[in-house]
């Protein structure tokens, strides 16, 4: 499924009548009463030692989030100053992944007293309303300010939505004045930028606030007392004004030592807001792609292999901090891993793959040795120095390409057993068969008397090759080239190998491996 695209609608709507505004006000009162009931229930639940489940979060959000339809969409979008709309489709897996985050954000914003109203629309069920709002894909987030759309440019976790919403509705920076407030802030925020100023005024402070408004993803917090700042940033430097980023990982604290200008602060965030190794998900993929760091190293591995590799990988990442962004992708996640692995011809790989890209992914590089710490470090060092050779995908050499003019030499006159794959580009099942042939060629690479070949029947002809069904697998035995044996194309790899072993003498020459 393609990655989600956010469409930002520009909608000019008529002002509501006094009656409609009154109805919306009454709805607000009703939601406040329901929220009070939720708080009471939550206190009772916590008193009994039971933690709210995701189902309870969603149930609570159902009372807060407006459910849009063809009858109420225009009234709600026009009836509130600020409305954040989620357009979704029940069958969309990315919508399903985003929905709990949207619900949790709705609960948090209501608790914080935000004036932002959240609403959702089943765009598949209500296409008329979807068209009115400008929803063209799923999921879609749109922000309406007094009925006019503004771009939504935040992230897609609940924290991301809350941070972006607060910044866009008048609270770009959270001010902390007590130790208790600082401790409560630490419980809720894992990544943030702290600014300490003697007074919340002046050119440097104005640049800090300007950066907070420009940034879409990181929570900014400000304090004045040094002892209070140390609750949030223990290693704070004793300077007049101080900036530092805090993250929940081994590389927890990073101080800012640049000029107090909005552009430089934003640049500092871009290079330092990610962890040493970022796990890519559908929700954060856009942030990863937009990183300003020039080089990116991707590690594709299953969860267990990655756990064993994480510590040495973090040590390497620390060495190349701000120079290389390190990204982990679960190799079993086809939506995320396969598009990258296909670029290297490794889409069927189950072993750990380490690859790299430059900014814009115009050049790609592959670590072709074992992914040890020393090999990864050397690979990264050569990447930064620009001495790595660009990787170009190539068809496996173990499968020879035959054309009409070489058919006699490569097939009929060969003294070896030859397995020929006959395919066409428009054949629906040929790709799967081609992958099987490549795996078989790799399995039998130790054989000196068996050759794997393929021919594109759409552009190549030969009088001795009369094939009408595609794909077709033919075994030309060394001692009989006139009557090739037709092998099954719908068989498993083990079944094909058994057929090959039955008709040839290669069984004892092949190294044992798993097909």
TrEMBL record:
Keyword Cell inner membrane: no
Subcellular location field: Endoplasmic reticulum lumen
Any one biological process term the GO annotation gives: response to endoplasmic reticulum stress
Catalytic reactions of this protein: Catalyzes the rearrangement of -S-S- bonds in proteins
Main localization, broad class: endoplasmic reticulum
Keywords, sorted A to Z: Disulfide bond, Endoplasmic reticulum, Glycoprotein, Isomerase, Redox-active center, Repeat, Signal
Domain Thioredoxin, first and last residues per copy: 46-170, 388-505
Signal peptide boundaries: 1-24
Keyword Isomerase included in the entry's annotation: yes
InterPro entries associated with the record: Thioredoxin-like_sf (IPR036249), Thioredoxin_domain (IPR013766)
Any Gene Ontology CC annotation: endoplasmic reticulum lumen
Documented EC number(s): 5.3.4.1
CDD domains named among the record's database cross-references: PDI_a_family, PDI_b'_family, PDI_b_family
MF annotations from Gene Ontology: protein disulfide isomerase activity
UniProt-listed Pfam families: Thioredoxin (PF00085), Thioredoxin_6 (PF13848)
Recorded family membership: Belongs to the protein disulfide isomerase family.
Record's function text: Acts as a protein-folding catalyst that interacts with nascent polypeptides to catalyze the formation, isomerization, and reduction or oxidation of disulfide bonds.
PANTHER family on file: PROTEIN DISULFIDE ISOMERASE, PROTEIN DISULFIDE ISOMERASE-LIKE 1-5-RELATED
The protein's name: protein disulfide-isomerase
